[in-house]
Write a structure and sequence with these properties.
homodimer, about 350 residues, TIM Barrel, Lyase, Ornithine Decarboxylase, Chain A, domain 1, 8-stranded mixed sheet, 8-stranded parallel sheet, 16 strands, elongated
Chain lengths: ~350, ~350
């Protein structure tokens, strides 16, 4: 465990406000509990075992992760119930790693085709891995069409896998006004896929969905489980989608003004600190909670160009500024650690233990 | 030093083809030498001391870096001549770190305002740090207007700094057809700034410029030094700008097909492996050298959606595919190591020693 530094490091660096984080954890847990849904948050957002433990303390039943290597790191840290929400391809070495994981934790993985179900069944050699069929609910990434979920489930069962249900990521919620529609699509797709499993006499016990922008609309008469990730930190995308306010953003990047031209300032947090994510509908490359009308017009690796409103006084060189990154999952994956703050003081540092764990 | 693995790891991972890398190193060195320019390559692109040593072996006089922490890591690895091409803000702790560096290596840094020159002079307390005035040649990021370079140089000299010249980054070369114009702007801005220094009796011994897309046009009657970075690896941006061919791309990301829908395949290298950079003029989120007409239409953290031309056979699940990332500096900064390949076999691994060194 790293120890808390007595002073802040040089910019740029990440801080997490513990009070806001705890409110976000609590709200996420209450939202799920009130609607009778199980919470299995996606820990790819934070990659930090300490934070995963806080999620379990707030009632999460287990964690969701994106890769086998993330799952290995969390298993090493003591987590014993993990869903890899990805159509994991069982290459020889990756299959061996999955069998190793299945010996020590309760492991679930996704499949999204007859071929991958057959390959996975053969590669896992009877290891006790539960399988969920991934369904495309409108994001059009991985996932089968709902009507085809039955065929995939049957192939998986015939290949010796234990099929426990279906899941989807309604990622088309990431567009202005898209949350409600994505939630309706999620309910429709999961419902149809669950029926398809039932028609093949496979019980869809787990019906898993959820994303931070759509979770308010997730249909608890259809789903059993939610997997939001970003809700613990929030970010500029969530602010601009209307999912949260700046007061609900717990993670920010601390930066320093290094240059000034007119009403533009350059700060030292560029794409290597903030991440380069920018959706078509985003107003810039991040936001400044203290200057809500400022916009980050341009981003280089170590420069962010912030345009201030004409009415603002241009800050002096050396001034510290807080930036809310566009997509916090990418931001965290650039950092080796972040600084945990309570009441403005650094009280702890958390290592981003699963940073870069893509395989 | 990491030892070479006998087999490849699970995807996604980065490989560097040593033959292509050496040709790129040689060409970059020859380009500069033939035109009488000193080569001081930007090592923020690769962050690898082994590769920096190859650059010195090919005739580079020293390295360029972007941050004090990168410079510390390279100084620890034995590099003794480093230019931090950035208007470094001398906070108390960062100034102390710069003074520490100046005790053990030849250190240059940038300044781009009277205020930062004064602050830097006061903070460095007479440490032997050389200073270059940063000039805006049209990229409109940091840097003073050329005519103002004299005033900044005078302020720096009065603050006790040793001003040795001027530099610019003609980053507006990163647009189709922009390389030649950016090189002309670079020559014009550096020429005017150098005159401004001379008019204040400060000798602009070092006149530094260069970017990979503009370097072919850099004016050797004006400049003394080039600082390209990307040329060692190249990337999809360079291919699409016409700066290089696929055969000159030395770094690629190895990925696996995990899902298929029609003529789209999903591979397991997403934004956390490739980086999310996408210029407005880019045709997608990266390119596939073996399938030059394919396009990466969408990128999630662990998914890239590749649209294949109708004439192509859709590859089987589990097929390995090579991806050229859009912006290799961002890609490298996501990885802890890369695998060095010669003749298709992994012969070494290089740690990305300065990964995440943003401060």
């Amino acid at each position: 465990m790293p120890t808390a530094p007595s002073t802040a490091p040089d910019t740029p660096y990440l801080t997490v406000d513990l009070d806001i984080l705890e409110r976000n954890l609590q709200r996420g847990a209450e939202d799920a509990r009130e609607r009778g849904l199980v919470l299995r948050p996606h820990a790819k957002t934070h990659k930090v075992p300490e934070l995963g433990r806080l999620q379990l303390e707030h009632g999460a039943v287990g964690l969701t992760l994106a890769t086998v290597s993330e799952a290995e790191i969390f298993a090493d840290a003591g987590f014993d119930d993990i869903f890899i929400a990805y159509p994991v391809w069982p290459s020889e070495s990756r299959a061996a790693r999955m069998r190793g994981l299945a010996e020590r934790i309760a492991l679930r993985v996704g499949v999204d085709s007859v071929e991958s179900a057959q390959a996975l069944g053969a590669a896992l050699q009877g290891a006790p891995v539960e399988v969920l069929v991934e369904v495309d609910s409108g994001h059009h990434r991985s996932g089968v069409q709902p009507a085809d979920a039955g065929a995939v489930a049957v192939a998986a069962a015939r290949a010796g896998l234990h099929v426990v249900g279906v899941f989807t990521f309604p990622g088309h919620s990431y567009t202005p006004g898209g949350g409600e529609r994505a939630a309706r699509d999620e309910a429709s797709a999961i419902s149809e896929a669950a029926e398809a499993l039932i028609s093949h006499r496979i019980d869809p016990t787990v019906r898993s969905g959820g994303s931070t922008p759509s979770r308010a609309g997730s249909d608890s008469t259809v789903l059993t489980e939610l997997r939001p990730g970003v809700y613990v930190f929030n970010d500029a995308q969530q602010v601009e989608l209307g999912t949260c306010s700046f007061d609900e953003v717990s993670l920010t990047v601390q930066a320093t003004v290094v240059s000034r031209v007119g009403h533009d300032v350059i700060v030292d947090a560029g794409s290597k600190a903030l991440g380069a994510d920018r959706a078509a509908w985003a107003t810039g490359f991040g936001r400044l909670p203290e200057l809500p009308d400022a916009r980050i017009l341009a981003l280089s690796e170590h420069h962010a160009t912030v345009r201030l409103p004409e009415v603002e006084t241009v800050p002096e060189l050396g001034t510290m500024m807080r930036i809310v990154p566009n997509h916090v999952c990418s931001t965290v994956n650039l950092a080796d650690e972040f600084f945990v703050v309570r009441g403005g003081a650094i009280v702890d540092t958390w290592e981003v233990a699963a940073r870069g764990a893509n395989s």
